Amino acid sequence: MVTDLEMAMQTLIEVFHKHAKRAKASVHHLDRDELKHLVPKELSLHDDKMKELLQRLQNDSERGLDFKAFYSLIVGLTLACNQCYEDHINKHGGGITASKEDTS
């Protein structure tokens, strides 16, 4: 049985390669156009945050992103989301409602 963490890892890999396939030069990098397509499709960011992220990515990545850089981007976004989650918990209590039963 595949664990939640293994599924998350698989999903990251599949999302990267699904969008990297669009490149004609290399399937191992996301170019600027692919990044422009990936961000709004795969991330539910507010328009101003999405524009800011895309601008930063375009400025930082002349050759595009390889999987390591893509993963670092996702880790950074996850850390920011976790901080928001912790701030919410500290302020309001509660937590994320599980979408499936805890099997542990």
From TrEMBL:
<dbReference type="InterPro" id="IPR013787">
    <property type="entry name" value="S100_Ca-bd_sub"/>
</dbReference>
<protein>
    <recommendedName>
        <fullName>S100/CaBP-9k-type calcium binding subdomain domain-containing protein</fullName>
    </recommendedName>
</protein>
<dbReference type="GO" id="GO:0005615">
    <property type="term" value="C:extracellular space"/>
</dbReference>
<dbReference type="InterPro" id="IPR011992">
    <property type="entry name" value="EF-hand-dom_pair"/>
</dbReference>
<dbReference type="GO" id="GO:0005509">
    <property type="term" value="F:calcium ion binding"/>
</dbReference>
<dbReference type="Pfam" id="PF01023">
    <property type="entry name" value="S_100"/>
</dbReference>
<feature type="domain" description="S100/CaBP-9k-type calcium binding subdomain">
    <location>
        <begin position="5"/>
        <end position="51"/>
    </location>
</feature>
<dbReference type="GO" id="GO:0005737">
    <property type="term" value="C:cytoplasm"/>
</dbReference>
<dbReference type="GO" id="GO:0048306">
    <property type="term" value="F:calcium-dependent protein binding"/>
</dbReference>
